[in-house]
Amino acid sequence: xxxxxxxxxxxxxxxxxxxxxxxxxxxxxxxxxxxxxxxxxxxxxxxxxxxxxxxxxxxxxxxxxxxxxxxxxxxxxxxxxxxxxxxxxxxxxxxxxxxxxxxxxxxxxxxxxxxxxxxxxxxxxxxxxxxxxxxxxxxxxxxxxxxxxxxxxxxxxxxxxxxxxxxxxxxxxxxxxxxxxxxxxxxxxxxxxxxxxxxxxxxxxxxxxxxxxxxxxxxxxxxxxxxxxxxxxxxxxxxxxxxxxxxxxxxxxxxxxxxxxxxxxxxxxxxxxxxxxxxxxxxxxxxxxxxxxxxxxxxxxxxxxxxxxxxxxxxxxxxxxxxxxxxxxxxxxxxxxxxxxxxxxxxxxxxxxxxxxxxxxxxxxxxxxxxxxxxxxxxxxxxxxxxxxxxxxxxxxxxxxxxxxxxxxxxxxxxxx
Length: 417
Fold this sequence. Notes:
alpha+beta
C-alpha cells in the first residue's frame, strides 16, 4: 500500500537532526582509509544492531577487511537496497592545510557555518549515515513496511593504496546476492554525493601505462640509437588525434563526449639518446561503447606506431574493476520505478524539481546493473568537487534533507502495511 500523507508526516516529525549529526561525527571520528576499514565496519555493525534490523552480518572480503550488510524485513514486496563504500582516501597534507584552525584534525567532524567537515564526511560517510538514519526514523515511527530494505556497506572502492582499489568489497556482495545468501534487491541507491541530484548513468574508463623502449647511444653518435622520446612524441601526436576522433563520434545526453587524456610522460635523463620513455593515459568510455573495445583501439594505435618507428612497447592496464582493463559504463532507465520514487521524495522534501544527470566519476553501480541486471543510481548529499580534497564538507541541511528523501523513498518504493 502506498504511504498516505499522515504516515509521511509522522516519519518527517521523527527526523532527529542532532542524532544524525552525532552519528556522522562519530563516523568521521572512526578513520577508515582504504585497507583500514575494519574498525568502521564494526562501528556500523553495532549501529545497525542498535537500530533493530532483522539481520546484520559482517564478513571479510579480504583478510582483516570486512563488509557489513543488513536487512529490515517487510511483509512481502519490492526490495530496496541502500549501498555505499566504507573506505576513504588518505589525509596527507590535511593538517598542514588547516594548521591552527578547528579543522586541523581531519577526523574531528567539526561543524562550522552550517557545514560539517572531515575526511570521508561526503565521500561517503554522509550517505551511509543518511541510509541508517532513514531506517532508524522508520523504526521509531513504528511504520511497518511491505517490502524489505537492505543496506550494504563495502570496502576497497577508493584508489591510491598499493594492492587495493579493485572493488573487491562490492564484488563479494554481488557474489553473495547471486548465490542467494543476500536477498536480491529490485532497485539500488548508491549514496555517493550528488547534491541530491539523481545520477542515472556513469562513465566507464580504462587507465593505460605505456613504456616505450628504443636503444640508448652516445650523444655524439645518435644514429646508433633509437630515440624513445622522439618516438613517444609521435605517439602523443597520434593519441591527441585519437582523442579528437572519439570526441566527435557521439554525445551522450547525460555524460557528454568520450576522450583520451594523457596524464603523465617521463623519459630521458642522461646525456645520451634516450632509450626509454613512459606515458600514462585515461580513456573515458560511454554507454554504447565497451572497455574492451576501447582497449583494442588503443592497443592498435600504440603497437602500429611502435612497429613503424622500430620501437618496443609494453602496455599495462592498472585499474581493473568490473573489467580486466578498467570500469564499465552503466545506465539505468529514467522510467524505472525506483527512479520515480526517489524523484518524488526529493521533490516533496526540497520543494524543487530534481535533476537527472550523469556521474562525472566511476563508482560501483555497474556491478548491480551488469552482473545482476538490477537498476541502480547514485543519490546523496554533498558536492563531488569537494571529495578527495582538503575542503571535504557537507551542509547540515542538505544532509538532513537526504535522510528525509531516503525515508520517503523507502515508504513509496517498498510500501507500508
